[in-house]
Design brief:
The structure is a homodimer of 532-residue chains. Chain A is an alpha/beta fold and 532 residues long. Helix content of chain A is 37%, strand content 20%. In chain A, the strands form six sheets. A seven-stranded mixed sheet of chain A has the order 15-17-18-13-12-19-20, sandwiched between helices. In chain A, strands 21-6-5-22-23 form a five-stranded mixed sheet, with no helix packed on it. A five-stranded parallel sheet of chain A has the order 9-8-7-10-11, sandwiched between helices. At the A-B interface, strand 5, strand 6, helix 8, helix 15 and strand 20 of A face strand 5, strand 6, helix 8, helix 15 and strand 20 of B. Strand 21 of chain A pairs parallel with strand 20 of chain B, so a sheet runs across the interface.
């Protein structure tokens, strides 16, 4: 077997013992392999990672929150300091722009780590609820088991299994992480892991708190996902892969937070189109081709009503897509999956208005693609026509009228987002309310007058949605402290003496901590006299 | 087919169309059947119930919260008014004491409905989080799909599928309920359904908001649990049944909140025993035989250290169990399952110290049973020896010392509760901390110096625990507003104009509603000038 890069297991960088095979990233612009080679782990290495993480879990759960916060901040500082090298690696592996997108994503990543640190420092995610009369105090606490994090292809920094939102959330809740990087950017993941491991070495956290595995095959993933030593799983990726892992995890009673697929329907209302059709076409095109359309919240379906406004919008959109150069994609498999998904949409009756084909090599390119169906045709084939085509692709549904747009809204399965564009003067109000009320329970985030790409890292964000866009509609993958609670257990103390309680549940409150005490949120101490 | 009682489907009481068979409750004290007969629904009736509930869901989600609160309060009032009849029915069907337990449970049930009403009125469960700078506002909202509720045998009122905590929680979140009553108390369930339906008729809620099915067979349960029209499932019952339903629900992506089995270990520390051993024996015996031990939080395992204190406790406990009269159980199946579970414990090496046998008919009685194993034997056969024996049964583990008690704590799978008795003067402090730190991640509620039976209805309660005691360690089945959030979806509004937001997310706040605005919990309005 060829030599390959070291794994991070049990607090040290070490060679894979029985790699299944080795793999290399490819430069998507030309399809050429990039050195060095990375191992595809065998089950022995995975078992060692799981054992080490499980062993570290109780010690990590007992680490003072301040040390966790310092570690997360230090990770952010080290990643910022290594910015140029990280961006260069990620650019080579993903072809994402090194001047705009990647610096922005890196800043988002370190911002996210620092938000997690702040949520830890403020204990915000523990959500203390105290009933002084009943002698009951409850909060969220570490799972005290490892969290397995699967990184996706489309955010080499912000959702990387080693530095992204799931990593930050799992570590904030004081659970060890087993990071499964995405094989399309192993060197970026390795370099992030080096930053994180340096922060770990400088901390009081157990060294086995973070394991880095670059890749393993599907069978290994399935047995690992079903191992009861795991506390939870975070996954961002395809529906096919997500559902297979979820089935394995479900059987073992392991909560899996999977963010799978979404077509993010965008409804353009009549008066918005009448006022603003051309600008909306430009906005849609920009959103759909940014990052080559490889976003979870890419606008994959847009619905316009019949009439002059809709026609003008459609014509302008078609012009923009037709005039665009091919977009470079992350990998051969992204390109092939897009080709396959578009073929399925065509087979279900969608007509290609622009683009529609991959570029013959070298590299992995596909033309921005606009497809079209009528509203009645969509309604008759809604299941097939809402399949995700991951990449720069949009299906334009030409509806007869607002009433049909309402029926189309009702035909969508769970999505991350649903968007409505309305005239600012209120002329679309009735249509907005009709469509929004139907769309609302089908989406995690309801958006007005802006495109769904762009997911702000905010406590009020919901990057989640009803099944099958995610595996549970009650949780968000972005935004602290909510995202941290996915990796926490609700724990109650009943009649436990005050001095034996965790710090955030004691009478004397921690600085800045807001707690729900006898039904009221407050940052005050509990009067010891109350609990009589 | 014999005539049987009407089902409540689609807003009216109607005959089962194709009942599989009919069944009658039995008086557990004598085993005699009680009239009338109730239908075991066929799939046609279940489909009609599901269709009606699904159709009602959007309308129910749009009902003003005040109307939901009024409905829940009215349910409570009508149940209180029907108190004597309900208690008489439940006493006949369950043999629970009509003078103590059942009045207490009824009061708990109506109190729970009123707490849910208050949580609705205060919007507390929607947990609004607002980021004025990012233009994002999020809260929990109805699933807008029906919730299927399975009632257990052991709380004919407080966990009845038609009036209990899951019912109150699902309705509070404005989701229709499909109630699957427990077949051991159909007349009690019918009478509760009559109270609830009268409240429904007096309300503005859709009449199809509540369906009542008395029974269906396992195969029907499995297809219903896998129907994607369901929003969620609440289940309280056996591990075997819960896991089978969960597997069906998981495959369809339906969250199932299952509360299954738990042995609720109780650790008695040396100094607590030295001071108080005899009183502790009485406390354990009372907790274990109350309600004939048929509680989710029954103390099924008690761990004592070697020494004079432990020996005296064990002797006194044995005396109490041996002197006790047989306890009446809910049904033939509870008795048979208890006999089977005790046989398995004996087969795994537990020795019967007292009781151990069912009474030969008539009626369903079993002697309070105390079994014993050594600490080392328990550790060698921990999986078999922590099987739940539902009923008045306790396994006494005689540990060598505190160090072995710590290892025993580490051998427990997920439980609802874990209890430690310590000396009030602090003499057990080191032992408490060692055992508690190991027990903590394995239980939902950590209790000091009182028995686990008795689950206060409080916002700070956790009636939940790690798998396999429940299906998800992040949720509680008791306590508002937490229990309501199981049946809610996280929903975010992004850039949506203020006047198109739900009432609890608008600038002008609702009376008494606490919201997290820009990181701080407050009941104040949002200054319109802030969102610039």
């Amino acid at each position: 077997m060829a030599k390959s890069e070291n794994l991070l297991i049990d607090g040290r960088w070490q060679a894979a013992r029985e790699p299944r095979w080795v793999f290399r990233a490819e430069d998507p612009t030309c399809g050429q392999e990039i050195e060095p080679a990375f191992p595809v782990c065998g089950d022995g290495d995975i078992e060692r990672a799981l054992h080490a993480a499980s062993t570290a879990a109780p010690a990590l759960a007992a680490v003072p929150p301040a040390a966790i916060a310092a570690f997360l901040d230090d990770c952010a500082d080290r990643i910022d300091a290594d910015r140029d090298a990280l961006i260069a690696l990620a650019h080579t592996e993903t072809a994402l722009p090194a001047d705009t997108r990647l610096p922005g994503e890196l800043a988002r990543t370190t911002g996210q780590l620092r938000q997690a640190a702040r949520a830890v420092r403020e204990h915000a995610w523990t959500h203390p609820v105290i009933d002084t009369h009943a002698g009951l105090r409850a909060h969220y606490a570490p799972l005290a088991k490892p969290v397995l994090v699967f990184g996706p292809n489309n955010f080499p920094f912000a959702f990387n299994a080693i530095s992204g939102s799931d990593f930050a959330s799992a570590m904030a809740a004081r659970n060890p992480v087993i990071a499964k990087a995405h094989p399309s950017h192993p060197a970026t993941s390795q370099r992030l892991a080096q930053c994180v491991f340096a922060a770990l070495e400088a901390s009081v956290l157990p060294l086995a708190s973070v394991q880095m595995l670059y890749h393993f095959d599907n069978d290994s993933g399935l047995w690992l996902a079903a191992d009861p030593r795991l506390g939870a799983i975070a996954f961002t990726g395809s529906r096919h892969g997500g559902l297979a892992l979820k089935a394995a995890a479900d059987e073992a009673g392991i909560p899996m937070y999977a963010e799978m697929s979404s077509v993010n329907p965008v409804f353009l209302l009549p008066e918005a189109l009448a006022h603003n059709g051309k600008a909306l076409a430009a906005e849609l095109f920009a959103s759909c081709t940014m990052g080559s359309g490889q976003f979870c919240t890419n606008p994959g379906v847009v619905i316009v009503p019949a009439g002059a406004g809709g026609d003008a919008f459609s014509a302008e959109t078609q012009r923009l897509y037709a005039a665009a150069a091919p977009n470079v994609l992350f990998s051969r498999s992204v390109r092939d999956n897009l080709v396959r998904a578009l073929a399925q949409l065509r087979q279900a009756g969608a007509v290609v208005l622009a683009g529609g084909a991959a570029t013959s090599g070298p590299g992995y390119y596909h033309a921005p693609t606009l497809l079209q169906v009528s509203g009645s045709h969509f309604l008759a084939h809604a299941e097939q026509l809402q399949g995700e085509a991951f990449g720069p692709s949009t299906l334009l549904i030409q509806a007869d009228d607002v009433a049909q747009m309402v029926r189309i809204a009702a035909a969508f399965e769970g999505n991350l987002t649903g968007t409505l564009y309305r005239a600012e003067d209120g002329a679309d109000e009735a249509a907005f309310q009709q469509i929004a009320s139907v769309l609302r329970p089908r989406v995690g985030r309801l958006i007005a007058n802006k495109m769904p790409t762009g997911v702000a890292v905010s406590p009020a964000m919901n990057h989640g949605g009803p099944y099958p866009s995610t595996s549970h509609s009650g949780f968000t993958a972005v935004g602290m402290p909510g995202a941290i609670r996915r990796f926490a257990a609700l724990q109650c103390y009943d009649n436990v003496p005050e001095h034996l309680l965790p710090a955030d549940l004691r009478d004397h409150n921690l600085p800045g901590l807001q707690r729900c005490v006898d039904g009221h949120w407050t940052d005050r101490d509990i009067d010891a006299g109350v609990e009589a």
